Amino acid sequence: MAEAHESVVLLKPVQELAVDCNTPPQRYVHKRGDEDICVNSPVIDVAVIDLDSVQSSSPSAEQELEKLRTSLASCGCFQVIGHGMTDSFLDQVHGIGRDFFALPWSEKRKWSRTAEDTEGYGNDSELSEHQILDWTDRLYLTTNPGDQRKYQFWPQNPENFREILQEYTEKIILLNQVVLKALSKSLNLQENCFLDQYGENSNMVARFNYYPPCPRPDLSLGVKQHADGSAITFLLQDNQVDGLQVLKDDQWFSVPTVPNALLVNVGDQLEIMSNGIFKSPLHRVVTNSERERTTVAVFCSPDSSRFIEPAEDLISETSPRLYKKIKNYVGIFFENYQQGKRAIEAVKI
Ligand SMILES: O=C(O)CCC(=O)C(=O)O
Ligand SMILES: [Fe+2]
């Protein structure tokens, strides 16, 4: 048991590897040509949507919804402001992640993932010996439903960690509802159309991502290219350091950080529910040699025991149903991910 724990889990944290490292170990190096790692990509213009305005009864609400639809069609994401969270609260959320990763390894490892679990503090899960590992350490925690939390992985250092993550979860639950209603309205659907598929026990997982400086940003990636298996991901970026890139028309673009905004990313499950109108974009994270970067992603999905499917009102003779009715998409996602495949392909009709 102890041995399994050591061999499966305690890959040396990237944060420790990065100390005095001139070049990343081979397991972290992408072959030239497989991943064209361009650190200085052009910046993409991601729309900034004001949720206050979307919810108002003024004519600007329609314009804002139109902007939302256009941005999603163009790059699969948008930035949201008017979400009701103050700068100082978002700083605190970011701060509990930054302060946690600043603790010595001996302290952080008290919340290490174990061989049996996907949650806790650790780095890339090694799924095969050929896998190229991501230049990142993570803290991965189920936050909702509350009775599925595994508090043995929730740090108590910094001491406000649990309290802030609890408050952030409550706010994201509400934000997720507002965003899903706006997305439905932007397609002229009943406002609860997507939300109804979520059920009572929507699933939320928070992932604190820490990217240490990397001596060769041209060789390694913070996160290799992927699409999210969620319905929606809310990403609190690092105000100081960029790194996220999104693929559009076969080209990588940098996603800028907008102060006090959360980046909303379409995941595969919303692609299914919208019958492919909203596309779950491929994205990745590049590194830099100068500065560490910390982000907080919250992945929101319908209750895993419920079936999801394309909204009935989006299906017609001219736009036939494109995806199967399925449940537990996150399970399907990881099964495919392990084989290096995109799960969304497996659920297409
Ligand atoms: O840290 C980032 O900028 C993005 C992370 C990401 O894509 C993920 O956690 O799925
Ligand atoms: Fe992602």
Task: Note down, in words, how this protein is organized.
With 349 residues, the protein is an alpha+beta fold. The protein has one domain: Sandwich (Jelly Rolls), CATH 2.60.120.330. Helices cover 28% and strands 20% of the residues. It is built from 10 helices and 14 strands. The protein has helices at 2-9, 14-17, 51-55, 60-75, 87-102, 105-108, 161-186, 268-273, 329-338, 343-346, and strands at 48-50, 77-81, 120-123, 137-144, 203-211, 221-226, 232-236, 244-248, 251-254, 262-266, 283-286, 293-301, 307-308, 326-327. It has an 8-stranded mixed beta sheet. A 4-stranded antiparallel beta sheet has the order 6-11-8-9, with no helix packed on it. Helix 4 packs across helix 7 and helix 5 (87-102) packs across helix 7. The radius of gyration is 20 Å and the shape is globular. Mean pLDDT is 92; it is low at 1-9. Bound molecules: 2-oxoglutaric acid and fe (ii) ion. The site of fe (ii) ion (FE2) has 3 residues, from loops.
Q: What's the quick description here?
A:
The longest helix is centred in the middle third of the chain and has 26 residues, at 161-186. Helices cover 28% and strands 20% of the residues. The chain has 349 residues and is an alpha+beta fold.
Characteristic terms for this protein:
four-stranded antiparallel beta sheet; 349 residues; binds fe (ii) ion; oxidoreductase activity, acting on paired donors, with incorporation or reduction of molecular oxygen; iron; 10 helices; disordered N terminus; alpha+beta; metal ion binding; Fe2OG dioxygenase domain-containing protein; 14 strands; Jelly Rolls; binds 2-oxoglutaric acid
